[in-house]
Amino acid sequence: MDKKKLVALAIFVFFGLFAFSFANPIEQDQEETVLSTLDNMPAINIDGNTFKIEVNREIPSFKTDVLDGVNVSINHNINNKKVGKYEVIFKATDKDGLTNEVKHDFYVVDTTKPIIKLIGGNVLSRINRTYKDAGAKATDNYDGNITDKIVIKNNVNTSKKGKYTVTYNVTDKNSNKATEVIRYVTIVDDIELLNKIKEAKNYLDNKDNKLINDLNNEIDKANDIINDDKSSQETIDKEISTLDDIIEKIKNQEFTVKFIDYNNKLIKEEKVKYGEVPTSPEKPTRKGYTFKSWDKEIAPVKENITIKAQYEVITYKIEYDITNVVNPTTYTVETSTIKLACVEKVGYKFLYWEDETGKKITEIKKGTVGDKKLKAVFKENENTKYTIIYYYEKLDGSYKEEKEEKYGKTNQEIKLNINKNGYKVNEQKSTLVGNILPDGSLALEVTLDLNTYKAEFYVNNKIYKTLEFKYQEKVTKPKYDVAEGYIFSDWETDEVMPAKNQKYHATYEKIEYTVIFKYYQNNTLVETKKIVKYGESVEAPKADELVYIGGSNPYYLEFKNWNSSLKNIKENKTVEAVYEKLGIASTRLYRLKLLKRPNNGEGRNPIWYEELGKKKNIEFVLSAKKINEVISKAKKNKKHEAVLSLNQNEIYDYMTENSRVELKSIEEAAIKKFEKLNVFKKDCKFEWYVLKYNTNDGWHLDGEVTGCKSIFD
Length: 713
Known about the structure:
There is one protein chain. By secondary structure, this protein is α+β, with helices and mostly antiparallel strands. It has nine domains: 3-109, Immunoglobulins (Immunoglobulin-like, Sandwich), CATH 2.60.40.10; 115-188, Immunoglobulin-like, CATH 2.60.40; 191-252, no CATH class; 255-313, Immunoglobulin-like; 316-380, no CATH class; 384-450; 452-510, Immunoglobulin-like; 512-581, Immunoglobulin-like (Sandwich), CATH 2.60.40; and more. The chain has seven helices and 45 strands. Strands 38, 39, 40, 41, 43 and 44 form a six-stranded mixed sheet that branches.
């Protein structure tokens, strides 16, 4: 196209658009066409571009329409993550270097609604129960978390049953309103059901009645409904109706009320409906009793019931013509037969009782009624009381008075012959003869003076000193100096002098000393103390016979003796165990003695030997001295053999731990083989009995299977 024509076209378009814009203004996001308006400038057509996007959306690619040979550059400052107005610059350059620049506004907008999400769902709650809304969360594509901007409208009334709504609304910073969210809260009224349960419990009587059982079960069901927070109003109302139906049936029941006497004889029978009060009959009568009440309250009836008469027994009086009576003063018709006891009168003997008619009476039988007046009949007493008064001399010279009551025939002559340990009778101050008076007033007096006795004090069965003391006088102990090694304790005396001459011996104790023992016990160095008396021997504790000492070069120690004498101890001392370092003797298991009854009839119990575990090494920890002694004896012996005596426990004690385990497995194998050879034996045990050394084949250990039981036991 000719350049002059192009410029003319541009000027025409520019003025045309300018006039149009005044006549029809465009929106900010409206697409528009812009061309250069100056002569010779390259024209730019930006028609078809979008100049508005939602926040966080991708920035669009811009395009232009220009003539051939025109280059276009596009620049902008758009931030698609921030709402706002921005600018896009289009710059066109033609081949002659002429440029044209067009600017256009660009908008980043936010039109997206926020989103509200409920925490929890719809709510079913009970009347008068506190309702705390769980709330909701709100998020916005631009503002992020806007939960704190939520507007909540809550019209829940927990004091009134019904269905309520809680609404949630929120608007973001760019005035975008979220879609309203609604939570439905249903308030269920369970008060009427609770009251109905309370009413229903009034009809429970713990009897095996079908209606009562149905009611009891329905109450349990109602309680389950109450306890289930998900129970609806419909469920609660239905349960109220069910309870009403059962209660009404219970009210329509008819029951029989029987009134019976103490002997179960029917007095009256009456039919009444549930909850009605029966009419009680006239008060019944019973011999020896007064009517007290019925055994059950005359109350509204809830079941068939039997009401029994209750009586109160009448108490009758028994009057006697004397006062010192031990017999009962009252009785009832129920009282067991009363055997009337004798009564005492000074100077007389009781014969019998007689009633107001003069009839002799010895008892009041069970079932008797009425008050009684009884009279006692007596004869002269042959067991009358008299008194002996003793005056005992005390250590201070005064006398203590004691009385003794005795009995004899009235007017009987009493002659006293008194012999009291520790005392002698002072006849000049005593009255020893008299006659018993009918009223028991005879009193004989005896004056008793203290006797004197000897106290001999012995040391090692020899008299040390002799002292004299009155009877009951405090024994004064003489002073005594004890020998060396002893502590004088005391004299073995009575606290006060008895009524005889006495021999007393000195008591003294040996001085005690502490002996401290240091030794190995359970492979640990320990220290114990023992107390021993002067000149006596002390018993040593049980020390480990064999001690294992670990470390990089482990070894064993064998107990030998104690480093100090344990006899004639006269001082505190410390005694230590002496141990000898041991060597190790390696032996092989050589012979096992197995008994088996032979088939050839030769002998009853011949001994068969078999080598088991011959290649197994069993290590014994022994002193080098003991090992060398046995080997030396074996070399001198004709059989080239010597025995080391060890008991069963010592054999295991002197083994290493690995050898004990090895030996146990060999024992088990030997027992199995023995029981296989001797099929009638069971529960066998194994015993090792000798450790030998042979110059030809070294150490070996002999043992046998013993202690078997018969399978027929």
